[in-house]
Amino acid sequence: MTAHLDHLVIAARTLDEGRAWLEGRVGVSMQPGGTHDTFGTHNAVLSLGPDAYLEVIAVDPDAPVPPRSRWFALDTDEMRGRLEAGPALIHWVAAVEGLTPSADVLELSRGDNRWRLTVATDGALPMYGVAPSLIHWLSPPPPTRLADAGVRLVKLQLGTAHPDRLRARLDALEFDGEVEVYEAPQAELRAVLQTPGGLVTL
């Protein structure tokens, strides 16, 4: 199973807040995404080139409360508290082939997009967000349709108290990409982006 970066996940209290925060940093406009009925969320998206993208995601105030925990730990007090300080890069997703639906692998859709994604039943992030969720696209992935805004990921930096464990997970996936793993007291994620205005770190 060879994996590569599929997308970065930025969470915010509201989609408008997250979108304004991201656009103010990268200097380009995001594109509308859509709603995720299973989790009561909605998003906006930005191309990172032909093979990857970035999403800003937030709870959709117009959606009913879902019967299960929302993904990306959005229902937790810890994540709500974190986002009170502003939008944040909280997670990343790696693309793989051959995911089979199960209790922790859901088949999902948004508009014409269809995919399978690993999601813990309690919505928790793997290794507090530094280990990737896994996605298998059943339709052409978003980068094939998004307008190229001239933004590229230079490096994804992942800090964790268990760097060897994270490296072992990435090695097991045969992950191919610009990822730097380092030791840190707690989970940290930083993305270095090349933008039309220069380098930006999220």
Describe the structure.
This protein has about 200 residues and is mostly beta strands. It has a single domain, classed as 2,3-Dihydroxybiphenyl 1,2-Dioxygenase, domain 1 (Roll), CATH 3.10.180.10. It contains three helices and twelve strands. Strands 2-3-4-1-5-8-7-6 form an eight-stranded mixed sheet. A hairpin with a 2-residue loop joins β6 and β7. About 35% of the residues are buried. The model has no long low-confidence stretch (mean pLDDT about 95).
Features:
globular; 2,3-Dihydroxybiphenyl 1,2-Dioxygenase, domain 1; single chain; eight-stranded mixed sheet; four-stranded mixed sheet; 12 strands; Glyoxalase-like_dom; mainly beta; 202 residues
Summarize the structure.
The model has no long low-confidence stretch (mean pLDDT about 95). The protein has helices spanning about 15-25, 75-85, 165-170; strands at about 5-10, 30-35, 40-45, 55-60, 90-95, 105-110, 115-120, 135, 150-160, 180-185, 190-195, 200. It is built from 3 helices and 12 strands; from the N terminus they run βαβββαβββββαβββ.
